Amino acid sequence: MADIQKNRNYTLTYDSLTKGFPSFYSYFPDWMIGMNNFFYTFNQGNLYRHNTNESRNEYYGVNYPSTLESVFNERPLENKLFKTMNLEGDDSWSATILSDQQDSGFIEKSYFEKKEGSFYAFIRNSGTVPASISEYALRSLNGLASSSSINIVGTLTTINFSNSINIGNIISIGDMVYFGNPTPTLAGQITSVVKNLPAGINQIVIDNTIVGSQTPPTGTEYYLYIKNAVSESHGILGHYGVFTLSNSNTSAIELFAVEGEVMKSFP
Q1: If pLDDT is split at 50, 70 and 90, which confidence band does 3 have?
Q2: CATH 2.40.10 domain residues, the chain
Q3: Of 84-88, 97-101, 139-143, 182-186, which range is least confident?
Q4: pLDDT (tens digit, 9 = 90+) per residue, 181-226?
Q5: What is the DSSP string of the chain?
Q6: Which site from 85, 101, 177, 202 is most exposed, i.e. has the minimal number of CB atoms within 10 Å?
Q7: How far apart, in whole angstroms, are the C-alpha atoms of residue 180 and residue 116?
Q8: What is the pTM of this model?
Q9: Fold of 141-226
Q10: What whole-number percentage of the chain has pLDDT above 90?
């Protein structure tokens, strides 16, 4: 059975008594049988007895992660912001989360911090570069100002602003810069921000080699920027949040409950 979303295959079992499919297995046996309270499988002519070794998540010498999929779906008619995830158990997991509006939410295993006996982390949003039109209202997009001039030298583009323009303190290295209205176009990624008004310097410098970037016009042009979606930890928006947890630990672990901080979105 193919899992289109994860691009993986599974072994699917059928129970004739319940007339249903109770289990999915990551490994691929040639034959499966239960006998004398043990579970046996055959693979490429070899016989294996399961649940007898200390190494978990390993089948036929290959390590497969344990995965669990469920959904946050309280108040399904409300558009919500999924901010955090809390795992009650004895180990952290990696997580992905998608909704009807965004499919780029994730938490790496190392992002979880143990607090009061549980593992807690903010949901990141990887976003896309360049950002799609549908993402402009969902991400940390900020208007900047109209430029006075630009200067391109090799891989760097310097965008100058008049001294009357306050670039602000929110903008930072790593932000993606866009130009144009009403459809913004990616110009590059900020490498430095220089503000020395007494010397008449008020500019940002961007790397113009970022995939998908285009050269802005040499004249006056309006610019805006989008903060790094991963570091900002804004979570994802949607009416529901389907999450998938994954763990490759080879020792015995337990997971008791999964909680999420979810709040109503007010556009």
Answers
A1: very low
A2: 141-226
A3: 139-143
A4: 778 899 999 999 999 988 889 999 999 999 999 999 887 889 999 8
A5: -EETTTTEE-EEEEETTTTEEEEEESS--SEEEEETTEEEEEETTEEEE-S-SS--SEETTEE--EEEEEEE-SSTTS-EEEEEEEEEESS--EEEEE-SS---EEE-GGG-EEETTEEEEEPEE---SSPPGGGTTTS-EEEEEE-SEEEEETTEEEEE--TT----SS--TT-EEEE-SSS-EEEEEEEEEEEEGGGTEEEEEEETTSTT--PPPSS--EEEEE--HHHHT--EEES-EEEEEEE--SS---EEEEEEEEEE---
A6: 101
A7: 48
A8: 0.71
A9: Thrombin, subunit H (2.40.10)
A10: 46
> 92: number of CA atoms within 13 Å, CB side?
16
